[in-house]
Amino acid sequence: MQIFVLNDFTFDQTEEFQNLAGYFRREISPYAVWHRYDTPEEMAIALRARIMAVDMEPILVLRAAAYMLTREGIQAMLTALDTNPDLACILPVSGGSTDLPFVPEYYTIHGFRGVALRCSQLESTLTEWRGEGDPGVYVCVPARLRDVDLDADVMTWPQQLGERSRVCINCYMVSFYDIYKQERQDVFEYLPTNLRSLLDIGCSQGYFGAAVKRRLGIRVVGAEINPVEATKARHCLDEVWQGDILTMDVDEHFDCITCLDVLEHFSHPQRLLVSLQRWLRPDSRLVLTVPNIGHWSIIEALLAGHWEYSPVGIQCETHARFYTRDSLTRLLEDCGYAIERIGFAPVSMPPQFASAVESLIKSGMEVDVDSLNRTGFYVSCRLKGRH
Fold first, then answer.
1. Mean pLDDT throughout 167-194?
2. Are residues 51 and 112 in the same domain?
């Protein structure tokens, strides 16, 4: 099998997605041949050459190395193409699909594999692709693509093919493509009132800061270590500091500093929390979101003997520290902060896990049920002794 993938330098420069690419390679046959292209135009030229040569070898087309599939799922797509000569493209099914007979829920790689396995065991079914635009991933046979607009973006070809494109529900896919494009509307209720300025640590491409600017009309500065992401963020924020936040020497104060899923990436979080104080006014606030390592999905995987890192989420590849509510609270207090509000991202235990927990409680074991039902924490705090 041939694999055509676009280089996305945002992903290529992050450790998380380098590891995702490694996972992808392990899941695909070692005999697969990878072809990487810097632009969609270069990929289109290469695909057009295969079409003109009436090439019958399947090609897996990827918008970027930002998707997760399993070996069994990919094989299911290849089998669908092989047994349906009238079809030109096969796409994987994703979590938002209404074609699945169950709602896929998972928060770990272990959980993802369970969902993917469940899909692979369903009765083999091909359904209509109702999506529009860019599917991100598809498998095609070049010789069957002669009636597409070869000048169009290759990611629009499945849509052009209409009835000759189908979704294989036996191949489950999870996409991380938009992970750096989150506006984080869930954080707004934790921001202080009467804001005039905000510093967003780890601002990525600036989507959250841009949303703050649109909604509140204030000055927003971002800090980002990834140069590619920082360049993109400069298009939507008032200013972006690029580099290591611990070594920056900038003389400015802010009404609020946000660290959204950032603290856990620091091996010495105390240094970050103390360093941020130089940019806080006496009445400023620090707002953080931090994942909870005590969530039931992590415990469930551990009970099954699994600990696997993922590109994002509670077990993100680049997490240097892991927190429960207790350890996070003690860290903030030790670094001179007074917590004013702590909120939660609730995801409740499934019934079978809840039943097991109830048995543990009845046996006399101490169990923090609230922690098991929280994927993460929202914290708003100020410097101690300041109001």
1. 91
2. yes
